[in-house]
Amino acid sequence: MTTDKETISFEAAMEKLEEIVSLLESGDVELEKAIELFQEGMKLSHLCGQKLELVERKIEMLVEENGSLTKKPFQAGTDEG
């Protein structure tokens, strides 16, 4: 069974997450609604993290070694420069 959350695009999830953050930061939301929004935001954040991780696994870097270019998997957070 798939839900809208599982099929939502990264960009749509980020946009919804930004809306939620804006609402929560405004302080004009009742406590129950704020908790509901927070939980939805956490789910969207997790979903975005998963989508980014999948993309990172697909990205390859071209690295020059001994005068020739070779492909290596991209590893976020490493700086070889």
TrEMBL record:
It catalyses: Exonucleolytic cleavage in either 5'- to 3'- or 3'- to 5'-direction to yield nucleoside 5'-phosphates. It is found in: Cytoplasm. One of its GO terms (biological process) is DNA catabolic process. InterPro entries: Exonuc_VII_S (IPR003761), Exonuc_VII_ssu_sf (IPR037004). Keywords: Cytoplasm, Exonuclease, Hydrolase, Nuclease. Heterooligomer composed of large and small subunits. Belongs to the XseB family. PANTHER family: EXODEOXYRIBONUCLEASE 7 SMALL SUBUNIT. This is Exodeoxyribonuclease 7 small subunit. The gene is xseB.
